[in-house]
Amino acid sequence: MSDEPDEFSYLAEEAAEVGAPAVLPTVRRFGVSTPAGAVSALRWGDDPRLTLLHGGGLNAHTWDGTLLALGRPALALDLPGHGDSEWRDDFDYAPRPNAGAVAAVLDAVGPGTRQTVVGQSLGGLTGAALLEARPDLVERLVLVDVSPGLRPEDSAQVRDFLSGPLVFGSRDEVVEMALAAGIGSSRPALARGVALNTRVRPDGTIVFKHHFASPPPGGRLDVDFRDLWPALENSEVPVLLVRGAHGYLGPATVDEFRTRVPRATIVEIDAGHNVQEQQPAALAAALGEFLDA
Questions:
Q1: Catalytic-role residue among 61, 78, 85, 121
Q2: What distance in Å separates the CA atoms of residue 119 and residue 139, rounded to the nearest whole number?
Q3: Is the dihedral of CA 2, 7, 174, 89 positive or negative?
Q4: Catalytic-residue membership of 273
Q5: Are strands 206-208 and 198-200 parallel, antiparallel or unpaired?
Q6: Could you give the 3-state DSSP secondary structure of residue 277?
Q7: Which of 54, 61, 211, 273 is catalytic?
């Protein structure tokens, strides 16, 4: 018997938590060959016009609660090096290479169809890079707790978490470490996330699925995101910035965003950096209002 959970086995539990209908939507996994290797994704329903990109160290299932509450067709991608997507030999998971992979998926799934792109953290910066390289694919852009003005020290919490012990005796150990690091506040939600973001090795130990936890010698993601500002400043695409009240964007960073992207709508949700996991229903409400505007 496999120790790996059925990836869709938690949907009913999450639907109940966010007040979604008991009849679950159809969710299917598929893969697309891209310049960054095979990219795996989840298709929620048919004819999706909403594409969601997770943050570093997460995967497509981080959006499950939000999509259940939102109730709209969508694509949720595993970015290169994450989830069920292939790892890159060059360990280059910066926003622009990621955007090339996302573009290949969108070209394969719905040629000529513009999307509302929702990205959290690294996924949001990847969305900005997609807007820069392929504006024909982006109808609207939502950035969740991230900005090109984000400073390296703002994301130290995640870097510290990933620099700790990365081989575990059980998934419970991972949950405890995440709670101690302040990554999340709900033990059941963290347990689900850990189950879907780790794998069991032949010796019974637990490791993360994402490449960041097993970098090659000298491998690191060290990118200055400020050169993505023009992608936002020079476009007329509607932008929504969702700030986690206890997340990574301080008041000065939000003020800079407001000044540089004056057309943007900015909302704040009482959550940490992973807004989609801590307040999925509130995020879904903000997305629904933005989509219907």
A1: 121
A2: 14
A3: positive
A4: yes
A5: antiparallel
A6: helix
A7: 273
Compute the distance between CA of residue 52 and CA of residue 77 in angstroms, rounded to an integer.
Answer: 6
Per residue of the chain (293 residues), give pLDDT as tens: 456 779 999 999 999 999 999 999 999 999 999 999 999 999 999 999 999 999 999 999 999 999 999 999 999 999 999 999 999 999 999 999 999 999 999 999 988 899 999 999 999 999 999 999 999 999 999 999 999 999 766 666 666 666 556 889 999 998 988 887 777 668 888 899 999 999 999 999 999 999 988 888 877 777 789 999 999 999 999 999 999 999 999 999 999 999 999 999 999 999 999 999 999 999 999 999 999 98
Q: Under DSSP, is residue 208 helix (H, G, I), strand (E, B) or coil?
A: strand
CA–CA distance, 170 with 168 (Å, rounded to integer):
5
Q: How far apart are CA 288 and CA 211, in angstroms?
A: 33
- Strands in 109-257 per DSSP E: 115-120, 138-144, 167-168, 198-200, 206-208, 239-244
For residue 246, the Cα-to-chain-centroid distance in whole angstroms is 18
Question: If DSSP codes are grouped into helix, strand and coil, which group holds residue 43?
Answer: strand
From the candidates 85, 145, 147, 210, give the one annotated as an active-site residue: 145
CA angle 218–221–225, rounded 5-degree value: 150
Active site residue 210: no
The whole-model pTM stands at 0.94
* Tokens 């012990």, located at residue: 165
For tokens 């169809």, name the residue: 113
- Residues shown for the chain: 293
Q: Note if 186 is an active site residue.
A: no
User: What's the alpha-carbon Rg for the chain, to the nearest Å?
Assistant: 18
